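Run Ribosome hibernation promoting factor through structure prediction, thanks.
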Amino acid sequence: MRYQITGKHIDIGEALQTHVQTELGAILDKYSQRPTDATVVFSKSGHEFVCEATIHLSSGLNAAAKGHATEIYAAFDACIEKMDKQLRRYKRRLKDHHKDRTEPVEFIGGASYILANQKDGSEESEPESLQPIIVAEMETQIPSLSVGEAVMQMELAGAPVLVFRNEKKDGVNVVYRREDGNIGWIDP
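Sure, done. The structure for Ribosome hibernation promoting factor is below.
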């Protein structure tokens, strides 16, 4: 397993790196999800330290968690507690409701665009053209999942929306978290 432990504008000492590898390794051994790599990023936001962790599992799914605290070790502990809860739920769902995936998740390529918002901030002004200004363009990966796995991946990543290719119907679908807390599924 590969660990990438970095800090944004702060120095990460050897003691913290060893602590992160030990604690993260213990959690991953506990759930034995065969992780391939883990990325942990520490940063400072005002008076708080922020720890963001992402673990890539061999099944193709990702688990992500974020923790805040006034001390860096406490921020990591809050983050790892959320990660532990997510992996516990993931393992329970796989065992109880889903078949074990024998093959890794398949990915297809896609394009991702970031569009510029209005310059003056007023919503009533008429745009000059109907073509939006593209600020950034990048490639992205679209996983091939079942609907249940897509919901699980969205929850593990902490994302509000997930675009995926439905394994059963071979079409592009979307799952998203609704304002009422339920999950929405768009199947065109």
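The beta strands are 2-7, 35-45, 48-57, 62-69, 106-115, 134-145, 161-166, 172-177, 183-186.
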